[in-house]
Amino acid sequence: MSDYKLSTKCLHSGYTPKNGEPRVLPIYQSTTYKYDSSVEMGKLFDLEAEGYFYTRLQNPTNDAVAAKIADLEGGVGAVLTSSGQAANFFAVFNICSAGDHVVSSTAIYGGTFNLFNVTLRKLGIDFTFVSPDCTEAELNAAFKENTKAVFGETLSNPSLNVLDIEKFAKAAHAHGVPLIVDNTFPTPVNCRPFAFGADIVTHSTTKYMDGHATSVGGVIVDSGNFDWTQNDKYEGLTTPDDSYHGVTYTERFGKGAYITKCVVQLMRDLGSIPSPQNAFLLNLGLETLPLRVKKHCENALAVARYLSESDKVTWVSYPGLETDSQYEIAKKYMPDGTSGVISFGVKGGREAATKFMDSLALAGICTHVADCRTCVLHPASTTHRQLSDEQLEEAGVKSDLVRLSVGIEDVEDIIADLEQALTAAAR
Fold it and tell me: Coil, strand or helix: which one is 2?
């Protein structure tokens, strides 16, 4: 499928039916798989043969969808997870353990920040958070001898900071570690992180990839480009794994070492898998991803222009807007558009923002984002409410920030709904 355009890959990658087979990817709703001999099954457990034996590790439906997403991102392999949170946890935990350190951008989703700053710290993994706008010197100063990875979001949720992928990749590689980026908001339609030096990509597939608010899920994609043998930091990949009779992942699986370990070790032990039914629904969403993303971006740009001209709005953040401070860097990394998400402040602050959202008729107040239907949220009092005022400031989340996820409805209807709600909030 490598020669096809992305919109074709969204339909055909991952599953190619043979003569007389189902045209649509089947749902393999089975926990286990039958074999004629214990010898055959034993080879699977020793990683000496390919095949299926238990859905916690692999499932044909899940694997087909993972393969499609890997092809969309240009990676060597991928694994689906039960959520975007699980994807980011596995992506880091696959190469980090107690005593290790990670450098992360501050401009990341609140749930990811809590995962790193609270839960992973309990597991002994330390984090240093840096501004996405930091200088190269400031970024390099954040590294330690035990640093194992760098993390960022290509387009941050909800502050909409565009990550300078090349700057962060350059620093990561200079210190012999990989760059992991969450590409949820732009999707591979609008941003190709591997082309700019990223090594691992994650997504909350719950968002634009699914697109219809039906299935929670995540994915990790391995570029296959990072050399895990260049130093002695990654013993889990470069030395024998006793739990698999001494297999060394880099020797046995080459460019697929990282993603293979993620499947056969982390999925085996932690089991954060999606159901085949959810993978099937995700695949349906992927088939229309380019069409929907284009419409989301067209609508969002029109809405951002409207908001920027409204006297009832104090500020607007949308990297696709020509007057936005992120516009030039967005054009570099996301030349065809960013996403359908806009951040803005309602005149009158937090109280007015609440009144504005309560007055909406078409748009819904939802914790979700990147749905085909327009929705809004006040992150400071919901998704980011666990963060202190200082942490909110570092993450670029203002107290009056309203996150607007522009859907694919008729844009005139969306703007009319915003207008009447802003008028109500101003009374």
Answer: coil
